Each structure stands twice: as structure tokens, then as C-alpha cells.
User: Fold this.
Amino acid sequence: MGNKPKIVVTVVSSTGRKRCTPVRSIASSRLKPRLSN
Assistant:
């Protein structure tokens, strides 16, 4: 049950960020590849 709430929080935060600030979505997408590298 610990994994389910985590997935829900991720989805909610993703939609919330896209609706509230689309700019943050782009910035986070740019930071994600950098962290992966």
C-alpha cells in the first residue's frame, strides 16, 4: 500500500505543476535529463 499513495502523489503533483506553472514543467524536464546523466 506504500507504493500506491506515492504514485497518486506523483500524478497529482505533475498535473498541479502543469496547470499552475507550465514553465516549471519545462524546467523540471530539463533538470531531469541532467540528473540522469
Residues 15 and 25 are 10 Å apart (CA to CA).
